[in-house]
Write a structure and sequence with these properties.
Layout: H1 12-22, H2 32-39, E1 42-43, H3 47-56, H4 63-71, E2 75-81, E3 84-89, H5 90-116, H6 120-133, E4 139-140, H7 141-150, H8 159-169, E5 173-179, E6 182-187, H9 188-191, H10 201-216, H11 221-228, H12 232-242, E7 246-249, E8 256-259, E9 272-275, H13 280-283, H14 296-299, E10 309-312, E11 315-325, E12 328-335, H15 345-359, E13 363-365
Helix pairs in contact: 1-10, 5-8, 6-7, 10-12, 11-12
Length: 366
């Protein structure tokens, strides 16, 4: 168990400031792969949004830098946890899959059999066809679907999506560089660096806890369990196994953990950021400490989709929209209050310009 004595007196503002630094929002990394590795995994189900999630966490990065990191196989997009797409460093994908994917597979097995007729034999047939289809290199999703269809494996009504998910969860395939407008898929053993060995479960849990709290802390045991798709019991084992790599804050009724080497939070000042939909700053925790309960419906729609958010001094204070045109990208702020504090406007304008710079377009502030 982490042995550092609890540190009391931390305010919510302290927690937000520390999380902004740990997540590389307030302290961007110098390299795309380093930014991804710092968080262990970065939510990526919204592709365009996930590109900006990496861009805002990397000093001076452009869209081309992200695409280059994918093409150079330094980062990879796959489904390592919760059946949800994430960016991870290529060296991290295999051990994360081995540790976290089996529970997600087991939890979904009965539903996939009942709703889609997908059993072990169906997945095995799909694996063999995919291995043949991808043996000469990456292929777009449509080509993979066509290969399955020719072999008599139906892909309609989300069946193809579930086939891809299962083969990704079992370490057969992953996403590669995009091919045209489509995601490209490749065999893991062909696309990623050679396998370097298997971690024992306790070692993998210790690594997971160390990396999660380094990139998301301060956070609690339930946050780790939610983020990784672990049971609470396994999350507690992971924290204990991490040992002195973690330091504890709070008291015995509400403990939280952070990296033992985390730098102190920066002095509070008026800072604001434009975060993409499904950003780790919200989805990296079970609680929504940065978002007032009254405003949840403005951020999380009835369909479960998250809106892009404005974060000021660590708290979600509104949403924002982008509209593309021939002249550039129009960025409009939609605060929860009637207006945004004037002190935040320069930072938000700068964030909008940074967003446009990342995608290589002009910005029009509405």
């Amino acid at each position: 168990m982490a042995t550092s004595p609890p540190r009391r007196g931390r305010t919510p503002d302290d927690v937000h400031a520390q999380r902004l630094r740990a997540q590389r929002i307030a302290a961007p990394a110098d390299d795309v792969a380093a930014a991804v590795a710092a968080l262990c995994a970065v939510q990526a189900q919204d592709y365009a949004g996930s590109l900006w999630a990496l861009g805002l966490r990397t000093h001076g990065a452009t869209l081309a830098d992200i695409e280059r990191a994918v093409a150079e196989r330094r980062i990879v997009r796959s489904w390592p946890m919760r059946g949800t797409l994430h960016w991870v460093a290529t060296d991290d994908l295999r051990w994360l899959l081995a540790l976290l994917a089996p529970r997600a597979v087991a939890l979904d097995a009965a539903r996939l059999l009942r709703e889609h007729g997908l059993d072990a034999r169906a997945f095995d047939d799909a694996r063999r066809i995919a291995e043949r289809a991808l043996r000469d290199g990456p292929a777009p999703r449509d080509a993979l679907y066509a290969a399955w269809q020719r072999a008599g494996i139906a892909t309609e009504r989300q069946r193809g999506t579930h086939l891809i998910l299962r083969l990704a969860q079992t370490g057969v395939l992953c996403q590669a560089a995009r091919i045209g407008a489509q995601a490209g898929f490749a065999l893991v053993d062909a696309w990623l660096p050679p396998h370097t060995g298997t971690l024992a479960r306790d070692e993998a849990l210790a690594r997971l806890a160390t990396r999660y709290f380094a990139g998301h802390g301060p956070a609690g045991v339930q946050d780790l369990a939610w983020w990784a798709g672990l049971t609470l019991g396994d999350a507690r084992i992971a924290i204990a196994a991490a040992g002195d790599a973690l330091a504890r804050d709070g008291d015995d009724t509400a403990p939280s953990w952070r990296s033992a080497t985390a730098a102190p939070a920066a002095t509070r000042r008026e800072r604001a950021f434009l975060l993409p939909p499904f950003d780790e700053y919200l989805l990296g925790y079970r609680d929504r400490a940065a978002l007032n309960d009254a405003d949840v419906a403005r951020v999380v729609g009835r369909n479960g989709l998250y809106a892009p958010v404005i974060v000021a001094d660590g708290r979600v204070v509104g949403t924002w929209k982008r509209t593309a045109s021939r002249e550039g990208v129009a960025v409009a702020f939609e605060p929860f209050a009637k207006t945004l504090p004037r002190a935040h406007l320069p930072a938000l304008r700068a964030a909008a310009r940074r967003y446009a710079e990342f995608f290589g377009v002009s910005v029009l502030l509405a």
